[in-house]
Design goal:
This protein is mainly alpha-helical. 37% of the residues lie in helices and 0% in strands. It has three helices and no strands.
Length: 68
């Protein structure tokens, strides 16, 4: 995402990015934050633990700790 942000800055273009990438960039260029805080922009991450019976290679114990 950093390369895309740098390209957008160089081209004086619009780009949609996540907050972490924006903050990580440090605004190296003339990019301007135009929109934030709108519910339509919410990008919620989630995970689903998988069955250890079907996926024996997955650490089910670690997933249970993460879920707690």
């Amino acid at each position: 995402m950093g390369a895309s942000l740098n390209t957008a800055s160089g081209l004086n273009a619009y780009i949609l990015t996540d907050r972490a990438s924006w903050l990580n960039l440090g605004n190296a260029g003339d990019l301007v934050l135009m929109r934030e805080g709108d519910d339509v922009l919410l990008n919620q991450y989630a995970y689903l633990p998988v069955s250890p019976v079907i996926h024996s290679h997955v650490s089910y114990t670690a997933a249970q700790k993460r879920e707690a």
